[in-house]
Amino acid sequence: MTRRSVLPGASLLLGLMAVLVAMPAAVAQVPAAHEPVDSSPPRGELWPLQPLSDDSFAVSTRALALRRDVRMYQWRAETGVDGSVRWSREWADALLETPAALKDDEHVNPGVMPFRGATWRASAVELDGHPVEPALYSHFEDWTPLAVAADTLPPNLAASFREVDGCLYSGEDASVPAIGDLRICWETLPAGPIEGAIRLDGGRWVAGVEPVGRGSQGEDFAFEELGRGYWLLAGLLLGVLLMYFMFRGRGRS
Question: Which residues pair with 185 in a beta bridge?
């Protein structure tokens, strides 16, 4: 009995099938969405390309946004229905104006605020190597306190402020503030992982119908692009195999 050899085309087909079967398992070995690979930003996480800086106070951080909140301790005058005046003291983020008719020598607010509140927002944010439309995360409001130490301030400010509970305070005693004392705090809008349906549109990530939220991206998101590449490669290999058989058949005829 003669032994029939396996056709080269059949061997190629068997090899192709083995590759297609093994590829999903290989994809599953890719690190999860929240795990960094080398020094590149992790998959599934918003990544601001440049840090944000409040140069006046030498405060810098990498985040979606940085906010400086400035409050001054001031007098506030309130008039009752009977015409009486009640004075109170509060931390305010703007100058409190006292009506001219109520002004006296005992309740006097400073005429200026030496510093104002400000907000800085990241101009370029990426997710898995693609730029992100700001509208995708603009609804985030989970501001997080950013502690600042007085010894990191520029010399001209270090002499005027001291650190209290992560904020800067200009007075003698934070528990008993005086009129005109300043309290300056910083907050950040953190970067990091998100959850929700997003899509690539012209090479940029945009939000789907529902707004995205905070969290850790699921495995399906992390492997969405890998799965797409897998099927493209499978189609390419099948096309090559089909062309091989077509030309092989023509050669025999």
Answer: 69
Distances (CA, A) of 202 to 2, 63, 167: 60, 25, 43
Provide the strand spans (E) within the chain: 45-48, 52-54, 59-61, 65-79, 85-92, 118-121, 125-127, 130-131, 144-146, 162-164, 167-169, 182-189, 192-195, 198-201, 204-207, 213-214
* Identity of residue 216: S
Classify burial at 125, counting beta carbons within 10 Å of its beta carbon; exposed 0-12, middle 13-18, buried 19 or more: buried
Using the 8-state DSSP alphabet, how is residue 94 labeled? S
| pLDDT for the residue 216 | 67
List, for residues 193-232, the tens digit of each pLDDT value.
998 888 889 999 998 888 989 876 554 444 444 445 555 5
| Backbone phi and psi for residue 93, each to the nearest 5 degrees, phi listed first | -90, 5
Whether the CB-CB separation of 47 and 126 falls below 8 Å is answered with: yes
User: What sign does the CA torsion over 11, 12, 17, 18 have?
Assistant: positive
200 touches 130 (CB < 8 A): yes
190-216 as b/e: b if 16+ CB within 10 A: bbebbebebeeeeeebebeeeebeeeb
Angle at the Cα of 184 from the Cα atoms of 76 and 164, rounded to 5 degrees: 105
Lowest mean pLDDT among 9-23, 44-58, 203-217, 234-248: 9-23
Contacts of 227 (CB under 8 A, 6+ apart): 27
Which one, of 223, 221, 232, lies nearest residue 26 by Cα? 223
Of 211, 68, 42, 43, nearest in space to 137 by CA: 211
The stretch 84-94 carries a mean pLDDT of 95
